[in-house]
Amino acid sequence: MAATPALAQTITEDEVRAAVGAIDTEAIIANDAHDRNWLNYGLNYAETRYSQLDAIDTENVGELGLQWSYSLNSDRGVQSTPIVVDGVMYVTASWSIVHALDAVTGEPLWVYDPEVPGDFGKRGCCDVVNRGVAVYDGKVYVGAFDGYLHAIDAASGERVWRVDTIENRDMSYTITGAPRVINGKVIIGNGGAEFGVRGYITAYDTETGEENWRWYTVPGDPSEPFENEAMEMAAETWDPSANYWEAGGGGTVWDAMAYDPDLNLLYIGTGNGSPWNQHLRSPAGGDNLFLASIVALNPDTGEYVWHYQNTPGDTWDYTSTQHIILADLEIGGETRQVLMQAPKNGFFYVIDRVTGEFISAEPFVETTWATAYGEDGRPIENPAARSKDEPFETVPSAYGAHNWHPMSYNPDTGLVYIPAQGVPLVQATDPNWELNSHRPMSTMSGVGWNLGYLFNVVAPEATPFGHLLAWDPVEQREVWRAEYVSPWNGGTLTTAGNLVFQGTADGRFIAYNATDGALLWQVPVTSGVVAAPNTWEHEGEQYVTIAVGWGGVYGLMQRATDRVGAGRVFTFRVGADAQMPEAEMSMRTELVSGVPYDPEHISAGLATYVSNCLFCHGVPGVNNGGAIPNLGYSDAGTLMDAEAWVLEGIGVDRGMPSFADKLTAEDVANLVAFIQGTADSLQPQ
Asked: Start and end of every Cytochrome c domain (predicted)?
């Protein structure tokens, strides 16, 4: 794919080539001395998201103004943290499209579209998002949603090479995470555990794209030779009676990575099992290594070094793919080299990053699946949470007490800043589950999900929440919090100016005092925010940037603001005074009405809707939708044209799949009956 160049360029290709050409492992490490650039997804290899820049501080943060904004021309989720190198910014939009900008002016330099096919959208659980790029030796690397890893010339935007990271294209693998580059190797994982895949992480040569190594996270068919001793060890923790390898096993590495150059260890977080329900995946139980684990690998060879499993025998979609931070902490009178994680399951972990030894874990939200962790580093579980027969309200739910939204650690305050949340969900074993089978009422089975659960067969008792949590990792306690109106708020940035920055689901960008949580500055932006901000310096001036665009698995169905603008990048500076763009407001204000239907078809339509539509479009009429429309708020013409959307594929280019191979015209009529009938039931009487 050739890049689309800008009409006018304020930075020359030679300047860009010189700047990015100088980036290697040593340059990323050297940036730690001043943090003028933002060279890695989490700023540094330790992924702290703590910047030493302090020109913007608690005294002048209230004077921040808009320097520039830039439209990403995307209407799905934006999760990218921009990379900034000597005044050049690289940021991704939905569908893995890369934008190169003049970081000071916001003028585009080039746009690279990896041309992900629209119908590939159905192969992902959680929106067609991308968390960012990596830069190294004159190239920009992006993992595209359709599983290809692209190397792009940083100056021209032209493709250098492209490699297919997916080992089996019959399976629904995707990439949403940002690559990391270490010692001439670009490292990337993948997602797809909802769809029955086997997780792995791969390193490629930065110059050629040649595969250097691959490490699987779960064992394959035990009748075949194991790839390594780690897989042989892991197989002992699975029950082979259910042929777990046929369901893939899961364990995808779809986000978290961190690197310690002194120890030469790469730390990865692994995902959930496939299917989610352990009773169906591994009926006799077992820890099911290496699901829901932190694993240390040698980044040069991919060899296993050690692991710690946060959630043994995961059955709740409690991934450990959430942000990992490396730090040195004073614990018990000695300095410990640790890693910290606050994964989905609601506990905050401090682990020795040299050996993998468990140090501590405490709940940072309410938890109903487990009460505490023992000295052996294993959870003390509530037996009801694993019931085969009764529904159980898991708290946290599969949405996580903390999902992919990055947290940050400030060594000056000693606090970690966590986007904490709760989204109620009741799980019950699906009695009719069959591997890769499309079944009415089985959640999203029509697009290939393999969960083994039904959801909310009884109403949850919990209520949704979202807050910014300042957490002391040594004392394992909350220090302060800022409450929000909704879950699914953005990632955090903290600085030596004693500040914490965060975007919110209701469309604000906020700065807090990092010590006490006092709100110091806020500005409304054009949609809800899920990404994390960054900060950088150019020619002595400090800037703060946030990429905005509502979406993600929760954001597909729900939102907390009527501002629904396209994805956009905002950059702020003290004293800047550019005009904020006008927000686009939602036009979804009235329930659909007037579409004829047979009431006797509503029940069948409900079953079809749950197995094909629910996790994208939500419950009809309950709200007016997130990044994807709630069909209860459709216009009548859309519903009357339902066959064209569902069977003829007129929305494929925008990510709406065709169901022609799974559904019939009768099924579509049933869907229309359910949607219109539900909307009618919600109309004022």
From this structure: 600-679
